[in-house]
Amino acid sequence: MSKNTDTAPSRLPVAVIGSGPVGLAAAAHLLERGLNPVIFEAGSSPAAAVSAWGHVRLFSPWQYDVDAAARRLLAGTGWQEPDAQALPTGNELVEQYLRPLAAVPALRAALRLNSEVLAVTREGLDKTRTGGRESTPFLLRVRDASGSVTDHRVRAVIDASGTWNTPNPLGQAGLPAAGEAEAYAAGVITAPLPDVAGRERDRFAGRHVLVVGAGHSAANTLLALGELAELEPATRISWAIRSSSPAGVYGGGDLDGLPARGVLGSRLRALVEAGRIELHTSFRITGFKTSDSLTIVGSTPAGEVQLNVDLLVPATGFRPNLDMLREVRLDLDPAVEAPRQLGPLIDPEFHSCGTVEPHGARLLSHPEKDFYIVGMKSYGRAPTFLMATGYEQVRSIAAALAGDREAAERVELVLPETGVCSMDLGGSCCDAPAAEEEAEASCCAAPEPAFLGIPTGLAHGRSAREES
């Protein structure tokens, strides 16, 4: 193991973990503040996780997808900014914005690809040691593509590593079901958000596919399978959710505050009512049996049920990987595993629709000075992350690290008056309030277009309503 020890603490770089939209924006803001970023990306290319779901279209237009500091950094490169009102796919986000941004010389020099951060700690101090802690450099243990491990000394850490590689388990109570690991190993459980109609079409055509979950990613996968079944009639589609009704996934139809979401729900409802999707409600997975096919054992109000399918697509959301932060002093909300002050604002158990106020360094701080979790990972297990909010997070943090407390506290992001739905696109803002005055107070009182960032899915249809 090698170790870089040749830099005085005051001249050390700021580590940014992850080169997705928020990670690259963090580096851009650090550069503007005269700070030196070093970006560790586990993948072989910038924004590797975004590329994994590149076929998915965002519900936020370009005007909210480009960070201000990144735009300024790109201004002198000949970069052509996309149409502000267009809705990009993940691939378009990468090709038209993130890769050009990562290619800007100052960021290219800071970017370390194939660099997986294994652990974050303080040099010479584990979590229990307090004396001199705040003045001691951080130590990042990083593994490269060859398997070599190097310790890197840095002055601060911004963790923008996301949640893509840690999907929620399919079993009940937050735990993997019996046989789940074996089913993944056998390849009969796919990665989240597979490209059903594109590069993975042959894998799904003519097969019996079960989609588990009741969020945006589940709805999109089901619709893609429906289109595939039109061309490949032998394709059979099943759908399992924990809740007793799919009404929350269908949304408000023509009255939905997000028109695109309303169309999504209406199309899905039509497929179910036409019998083209076999729906299983109140279904809790208790086990898997893997042989030539996959058997899913589920608990329902009517007793145990077994479903035999060829493939299962998980759409149960994600959770943060906190293993690498074991030696960092964190202060996390006990429910959603977001920074404690942010957790109550985004907890989907209590918030089905409304705004998440723009926030920065103060709400994202931990007992570990100069350590921050940002972006999708900062939302912990909460289902939907707004990209523009992530850009405001890192603007504020860069200001704080540069010693500009006034700028760090200032809010520079203005959200649409209609707010941002804190459920994912499969969730429902509209539950038909019984009284007119309730409707006026609800998020559905004024069905004006709003926008969302990156949807991450709901855990088996978890919503603000109690599950039946």
UniProtKB/TrEMBL annotation:
Oxidoreductase keyword on record: yes
Domain FAD-dependent oxidoreductase 2 FAD-binding per the UniProt entry, residue ranges: 14-136
Keywords on record: Flavoprotein, Oxidoreductase
Statement: the UniProt record of this protein carries the keyword Protein biosynthesis: no
SUPFAM superfamilies, A to Z: FAD/NAD(P)-binding domain
InterPro entries linked to this entry: Auxin_biosynth/cation_transpt (IPR050982), FAD-dep_OxRdtase_2_FAD-bd (IPR003953), FAD/NAD-bd_sf (IPR036188)
Protein name as annotated: FAD-dependent oxidoreductase
Protein source organism: Arthrobacter gandavensis
